[in-house]
Write a structure and sequence with these properties.
Strand order of the largest sheet: 2-1-8-9-10-7-11
Strand content: 15-25%
CATH class of the largest domain: Alpha Beta
Number of helices: 10
Helix content: 25-40%
Number of strands: 13
CATH superfamily of the largest domain: FAD/NAD(P)-binding domain
Number of domains: 3
Order of helices and strands: EEHEEEEEEEEHEEEHHHHHHHH
CATH topology of the largest domain: FAD/NAD(P)-binding domain
Shape: globular
Largest sheet: 7 strands, mixed
Radius of gyration: 22 Å
Length: about 375
């Protein structure tokens, strides 16, 4: 995929976001997972099929393994390990049961979760631009989220819709059928498969390590906060975690301190990018359809701005006093002020993450400032 087209709620404006470094691949998720599994087994991993992780085993404030259940026999067992990795996705079955003394956040708040429904459909006609993904912004159709059409070939598409779970969430499947699948494009189309799920859409958790434990993937909220995509960030986190664990085992130090370099490497790099995108997400969620239509029509945020934001760069807006006077006459000055505040907060958040503490000793001070910046960003979620 060479780019993304983003449509305003009234469909009158479409931003084409493409450029060097912005591309992706449509993959068969099941086969991709099986490929990774084969690589792990060939490297010496021991796969325990039909085995469910139940809870962590904690002794003297340190993880010593997990309690697990064989789903075929119902038998329970203790599996000991020098280091435990929680890669259990959004449920985070181990992280959510950790004791407070490990100082790892155990909750993912509802307002940071999007519930989605999608279908793979076979169309009657060829897709006009099979190398572009399409995203549709509409606060009535997909509050707190968006709808999408991702080509999987010339006549096959992944079409879906996601909504925020905060407040009184609406059914994404009903919204998809009412507002998207009713379009002419999907006339006489056939469904190949469908399904739903939940994804985290926020910055990564502040600390991903404790004595004897490492958190990766959706369990650590390693996703793009704007669209919830997590395969790339999660694999990045997995590589960083794996290398850190090897060094910790070699030095016989699997404590929080010995595993800390994983936090530093991830949060100062991709984590900083996620943190800035999280601010941008909260800003977007506070906009009305009218704001989005207006902002895209008059390019208050340009295609170049969106490209820079998606690549983790700062947006540099030229919002002069003359601009404010012009827009004041059409009562959009408040939108400009909020946009200027958002761009400033994006920069502050990214710089803060790039200064992530190199040891656990300074973590508490860093976390307090993080919470202050996050509270400021959350205020932008309130509708304008």
């Amino acid at each position: 995929m060479t780019g993304i087209k983003i449509y305003s709620p009234d469909i009158a404006t479409a931003f084409s976001v493409e450029g060097e470094g912005l591309y992706g691949f449509i993959i068969n998720r099941h086969l991709f997972g099986q490929r990774l599994l084969r690589i792990a087994i060939n490297a010496g991993a021991n796969l325990k099929e039909s085995t469910q992780a139940l809870e962590p085993i904690v002794e003297n404030h340190s993880l010593k393994g997990i309690s697990a259940k064989d789903l075929l026999t119902g038998r329970r067992a203790k599996i000991t390990s020098r280091v435990v990795v929680d890669a259990s996705g959004l449920p985070a079955v181990l992280r959510t049961k950790l004791p407070p003394e490990l100082r790892i956040d155990t909750a993912t708040h509802k307002e940071d979760i999007v519930i989605c429904y999608r279908e793979i459909r076979k169309l009657k006609e060829q897709i006009p631009e099979p190398n572009f993904c399409e995203i549709y912004l509409n606060r009535q159709h997909a509050p707190g989220g968006y709808s999408w059409i991702f080509p999987e070939g010339e006549t096959k598409v992944n079409v879906g819709l996601g909504v925020a779970t905060s407040g009184n969430p609406i059914n994404p499947k009903n919204q998809l059928y009412t507002h998207i699948l009713s379009r002419t494009l999907f006339g006489d189309s056939s469904i190949l498969k469908g399904g739903g799920g939940q994804v985290p859409t926020r910055r990564p958790i502040d600390c991903m390590t404790g004595d004897g434990i490492v958190i990766v993937g959706d369990a650590a909220c390693q996703v793009n906060p704007i669209h919830g995509g997590g395969i790339g960030p999660s694999m990045t986190g997995g590589v960083m975690a794996g290398k850190t664990i090897i060094k910790a085992l070699d030095s016989d130090n699997v404590s929080r301190t010995g595993l800390w370099p994983y936090n530093v490497e991830y949060l100062k790099s991709y984590g900083a990018r996620q943190a800035g995108l999280d601010v941008f997400r909260l800003f977007l969620q506070g906009l009305s359809n009218d704001d989005l239509n207006f902002g895209m029509k008059y390019q208050l945020i340009t295609e170049s701005d969106l490209l820079k934001t998606s690549m983790g760069e700062d947006i540099r807006l030229n919002l002069s006093e003359k601009t404010f006077r012009v827009f004041k006459g059409i009562r959009k000055v408040s939108l400009l002020k909020r946009l200027r505040k958002a761009t400033s907060l994006i920069r502050k958040m990214r710089e803060h993450y790039q200064n992530y503490p190199t040891s656990p000793d300074s973590f508490n001070d860093w976390k307090r400032k993080t919470q202050h910046l996050a509270e400021e960003a959350s205020k932008m979620r309130a509708p304008s």
